[in-house]
Design brief:
The protein is of the alpha+beta class. It is built from 3 helices and 12 strands. Strands 1, 2, 3, 4, 5, 6, 7, 8, 9, 10, 11 and 12 form a 12-stranded antiparallel β-sheet that branches. Helix 1 runs antiparallel to helix 3 and helix 2 crosses helix 3. The chain is globular and about 50 Å long.
Amino acid sequence: MDPDAPIVGAVFADCLVDATNLAVTARMTTTYPDSSATGPIRMSTPFELHFVMSDGGELFIRDKRGWLKGQGGWIEAKEGGSPQEVIADTVVKSYLGLTDPRVQKQFFATSQWKPVTSDPETVNGSRTIAYSGSPALGDATFDDYRIWIDENFLPVRIVSTVTLFGRTSTGQQDYQDWGEPVRFPAGLPR
């Protein structure tokens, strides 16, 4: 691809998601104004993610099922369940929307992607090119959405500013160690 030319959304989405599926694993850190989380992610089938959050809680997603762990132990996400199950469901759906390749492919395809600059930047130790787009996700309005991609078309960093229900928030996702072995701790729910 020409690093100076815009990329059609469907092509961008196919390349990015295919690259993550080929790499299979990574370590991901998310940072938001009030929280952060880090842990391994597996992009294969089944999709798996395990995060330890800055508040000491944990999140585990296997395929489309998810659990949130707080002081009271693991709570399975359930739409329309108890208040704790509904909170877990909201968190799980949020992370699935940000990380699951099946969702990312649809999401990234909704926007044309333009290089921010043709000059490479070093991000997390990788030589990258930043792309900017305006993807659509339900009622969310992305005021700014940038993805730094390495020479293998793997995401290295994503920074997004979104306005939802009148509230604006900026978040960052950092990916490292693509294709390296990851380990999920014993005792996770199934």
